[in-house]
Write a structure and sequence with these properties.
12 helices, mainly alpha
């Protein structure tokens, strides 16, 4: 009998993957009981996303400066290394948890209080890792104002500051739909290469489309503040991170987590 390629690639049903995400929520909550260690794990994730952000600026900066139409595609093409590092090297990323923890709550594998504390630790750790990475990059001088990467940084900060609060929110929703779809799909496939490709393409889609990722913005805005970029200040950073973070929560919890909780009912025999 002929076996379809998709059947070979996928290993979990929707219901089984929901169970896997609910178990991942338990794992996150359990790990968060060791708060200092969990903060370090979250800092690593923030730094990994920050490294992808810097890679994007240095790779696409010269193209952007030259007015190349390929700048956006290159930006998205290289950014995937951030999520790939989080998944394969290890780290606790707040944006993917915005799907995982709500699934755990819906499946009653975790409680609201412990899930909330776990999420708070992740956000604080991601922020600390992003700021630390931005400080190291500033000290290195690779994004100096005269460099192509530095000018691309200034362009990014200006572009983000020009968005209205509503635009930031909905860009945050759309971004985390893609991020959480990447994590959801990784849970279903049996191939590490397929997992890496899914993550890379989902990240490319959100970056090229101009969507907003709260952890990536932690690094971008920190870099802007360290380098004295116009429009980068504490007030704008707070507006951006709070608004984008709320949008990311809606995108991950409702448009992915809740959607698949509903879709999985199609597999029920009753």
């Amino acid at each position: 009998m002929r076996v379809r390629y998709l059947d070979c690639l996928l290993v979990l049903t929707l219901t089984q993957n929901l169970d896997k995400q609910a178990h991942a929520a338990v794992h996150k909550v359990s790990g968060a009981r060791r708060r200092s260690a969990y903060l370090v794990a979250a800092m690593l994730a923030g730094a990994f996303i920050g490294l992808a952000d810097v890679f994007m600026m240095t790779a696409a900066g010269p193209l952007s400066l030259a007015g190349s139409p390929w700048s956006s595609l290159i930006s998205g093409g290289v950014f995937g290394i951030g999520l790939i590092l989080v998944m394969f090297a290890g780290g606790e990323l707040a944006t993917s948890a915005m799907m995982i923890l709500p699934v755990g709550l819906a499946r009653r594998t975790v409680g609201a209080g412990e899930a909330g504390m776990t999420f708070l630790l992740m956000v604080l750790g991601n922020l600390a890792g992003s700021v630390a990475l931005a400080g190291l990059v500033w000290a290195s001088g690779i994004l100096s104002p005269s460099s192509a990467g530095g000018q691309f940084l200034a362009h990014l900060v200006e572009h983000k500051a020009a968005k209205t609060t509503g635009e930031l929110f909905f860009c945050g929703v759309l971004c985390n739909v893609l991020v959480c779809l990447a994590i959801w799909t990784v849970g279903r496939v049996r191939s590490e290469m397929a997992a890496a490709l899914v993550m890379a393409w989902c990240m490319a889609a959100f970056v090229c489309s101009g969507f907003e990722h709260v952890v990536a913005n932690m690094t971008t805005l920190s870099l802007g503040i360290f380098h004295g970029v116009a429009g980068a200040d504490a007030g704008e950073a707070a507006r951006n991170l709070v608004t984008v973070g709320c949008g990311n929560i809606v995108g991950g919890a409702i448009f992915v987590g809740a959607a698949y909780l509903c879709a999985a009912r199609t597999e029920s025999e009753s």
